[in-house]
Amino acid sequence: MYALYTLLLTLTLPFALLRLLWRSRRAPAYRRRLRERFGRTEISPAAGGIWIHAVSVGEVQAVAPLVRLLLEAHPEQAIILTTTTPTGSDQVRRLFGDQVLHAYMPWDLPPFLTRFLDRVRPARLLMVETEIWPNLLRLCRARGIETILANGRLSERSLRGYQRLGGFARRVFADVDRVAAQTEDDARRFRKAGVPGERVVVTGSIKFDMTIAASVVEQVEVMRRHWAGRPVWIAASTHEGEEEIALAAHARLLRRLPQALLILVPRHPERFDRVVPQIIRAGYQPVRRSAGQLPGADDPVYLADTMGELPVLIGAADAAFIGGSLARVGGHNMLEAAAQGVPVCFGPHTFNFALISRMLLEAGAAREVGDAVALAEVVGDWLSDASSRAAAGEAGRALVERNRGALQRLYALLEQEARPRAERPGRPQ
Asked: Judging by beta carbons within 10 Å of its beta carbon (0-12, 13-18, 19+), is residue 201 exposed, middle or buried?
């Protein structure tokens, strides 16, 4: 089965390359450093470092507090952070500069992985959330590299997909040394997938342990002063089709609140320019943040076409819609809004944040919407009623505070795993 998997992956490699090149038409960063996808990296850390793989921006942001803890506790140990997207790479550089080493994750083929592992020589691999790669796990086990799935989540849908692969999937999951699951349900599904029960622990979601930097708070206040009391909402991390829904909702909202401002933040930078014609067709002249502009009192739509500013833009809004949830993407992190006391709404497709979205709804900190009409109604209600908006926002902030602690539990687990093998409880010998 491993040979068949490797053969199939090899056959798809030309298409993966073509996809990268196609995406590079609008985002040139996708064709840069291509050699790293083949395991050819320039980084050369001392042996025995920690390799952390975080797919893109969201995973990098989630694991950032843990990286800071590790940098402080083990300054002598190299930390290698890999991503698969250029936006993830940019986020690594923005957050850590030269404190960590960065490379793109090689494709899951033995020659590429062998080349990368020979160069990097990590002692441990920390994979964030759902990164299960058969050849990578098999090679790590053969080399004695410990593999830990951090902030692990596994949906019922994904479990069913793995179970269709039968014994092969169970062998793959059995190669994971430790799973730090977000919830008891995730832990149960990992055990059903094939991870031995004693290797699975529940640590909670580290996404609750986010901190809002003082610089973000300062920038939020500056931006709010510029709004001068205007009702402002944000459509954050939107995907194809969601900008049209947000713009249609805003048109309805303007009939109710003529001074309302929509901050529109597409998820992927290669789509920034493509969103401009949509805004114009909707009847608005977009103000672009990349041009260094701020919207005037009569500008209804602000296109936030820059990277790394989402926490500030969310904090400066009175209400937030989180994208990837009306499109069938699985949603994005709603806690960036909740942690700042901003009430949040999202569509029905939140399977990547199933627990978090449910907790927010049950706490009264969020609302689910299905179309432009519902979106306009929910946002309009919040923008029109300061007390209900404040109650929902405070419920979200309180929920985040109550659920902090996963970061410390995960860090304690990593420190335990770093002890000599004979001293580790629950670790396979």
From this structure: middle
Give catalytic status of residue 59 as yes or no.
yes
Nearby residues of 133 by Cβ (< 8 Å), 6 or more positions away = 108
CA 130/CA 155 separation, integer angstroms: 10
Q: Which amino acid is at 129?
A: E
Using the structure block, give the residue that is written with the tokens 């009264």. Answer: 364
The single residue listed with the structure tokens 């809002």 is 212
Given the residues 36, 42, 59, 198, select the one marked as catalytic.
59
Please give the Cα distance from 272 to 404 (Å, whole number). 34
The per-residue pLDDT for range 76-135, each reduced to its tens digit, is: 999 999 999 998 999 999 999 999 999 999 999 999 999 999 999 999 999 998 889 999
Q: pLDDT at position 175, please?
A: 96
For the chain, give the longest Cα–Cα distance.
Answer: 68
Task: Please report, as a single letter, which amino acid is at residue 118.
Answer: D
Closest CA to 58 of 151, 164, 158, 163: 151
In terms of Cβ atoms closer than 10 Å to its own Cβ (0-12, 13-18, 19+), residue 186 is buried
With beta carbons less than 8 A apart as the criterion, state whether 193 and 149 touch: no
**Placement of tokens 């001074």 in the chain:** 259
Give the helix ranges, DSSP H, for 144-271: 156-163, 167-174, 184-193, 214-227, 242-256
**Cα four-point dihedral sign 180, 181, 183, 185:** negative
Residue 378 identity (one-letter amino acid):
V
Instruction: Give yes or no for residue 182 having a pLDDT over 60.
Output: yes
Pairing of strands 301-303, 319-322: unpaired
Q: Return d(Cα 51, Cα 43) in angstroms, integer.
A: 12
Q: Coil, strand or helix: which one is 142? A: helix
Q: Which of 420 and 299 is assigned the larger pLDDT?
A: 299
CATH number of 214-402: 3.40.50.2000
DSSP run (H or E) holding 378: helix 372-384
According to CATH, where is 3.40.50.11720 located in the chain?
A: 22-210+405-423
Q: Which CATH entry fits the domain spanning 22-210+405-423: 3.40.50.10490, 3.40.190.120, 3.40.50.11720, 3.40.640.10? A: 3.40.50.11720
Pick from 127, 69, 123, 138: which is nearest to 100 by CA? Answer: 69
